[in-house]
Give the backbone structure.
Amino acid sequence: MSQARNKHIEEDSATEESELITQDIKFLGETGDIVAHFAKPRGDVKLPGVVVIHENRGLVPHIKDVARRVASEGFLTLAPDALSPVGGTTQERISKDEVPALIQKLDGQETLKNFIAAVRYLRTNPQSTGKVGAIGFCWGGGVANQLAVNSSDLVAAIPFYGRQPSSADVPKIKASLLLHYAGLDERINEGIPAYEAALKKASVDYRIFMYEGAGHAFFNDTGSRYNEEAAKLAWERSVSFLKDKLKT
């Protein structure tokens, strides 16, 4: 990507919410302008960054709330909309029920490069320490795993019940991993043994937690499968992990 395409686009719609500043922004990705929700604590102190990657429902209010929660813990936070190349999640011409199918139709490599650009955006932000992590949920958990494989700038990744990368790609991972899985999520969990074996063989720094009795999407407090106990514990572990791995 050329330097010109990597420049930051002017932020807009700035708002102040208690101790946070939140903005709807656009940054330049592989496919052009990418819409994202940006949040940070007030002040000018340099902070590490975290990319928040949405489920297959797109950049919905729940994910923006997660981004603000991450920011409140002391991070520059960016939640990109993967559907930006086709008009974004909230466009009037599509219903929320159509979003998962649209996400599946996205070009996988272009989408991944858009999220790699998001990592770069945070790493080069004037207020950034240069250290960047990622946290992703469901579809976004799979993207977080792929970021760990494909972005040398990523320091830490937290996939929630995400699809695992190919074992052959695991040696490319340099980031530290915190892997959250749901005990009742049989389809996703089928990939755990091969993934963990590859992580061990490649000496990747990782931790894995299984939340027994919880189902896929247990962290989403707006959904029917929300599990409060599992979600709170996973969140506490995630915040601690990010602060440890991204500290200066």
Summary: The radius of gyration is 17 Å. DSSP finds seven helices and nine strands in the chain. The first strand starts at residue 12 and ends at 17.
